[in-house]
Design goal:
Elements: E1 2-5, E2 12-17, H1 23-32, E3 45-51, E4 55-64, E5 68-78, E6 84-92, H2 97-110
Antiparallel strand pairs: 1-2, 2-6, 3-4, 4-5, 5-6
Length: about 120
Amino acid sequence: MVFYDSPSDGRQLQIFELAESTVTESLDLAENDPGYGYSHEPGYQALARSSSDTWAELSYRYDDPDKGARRVVDHRFRTPGGTLYAIRSSGPEHLPDARVRAPLTTALASFCPAGASCG
């Protein structure tokens, strides 16, 4: 798991490999698991969902006890080699959606797992 923090505006990017067998299963667990699911966070509200055969994405907001109201875009996807990953981009709720999403968009455009052959 890797975290990248932007000290200037409170955004964060998180990248990690998934253990579940599908991206939809992984995202459902992340949202709804009774022990750690996002839906149990204070102020949780799902904002948007979208998916295809190889990816699933959930945008939501919640109230972080230390950082205040946060917006998150959680994107889970299958690489051409079959490995599943998640990239989560978050930031203060007052930032425009495009600003919170920008690190995710950049990471997806250049993502290449170690040992893979990417073009």
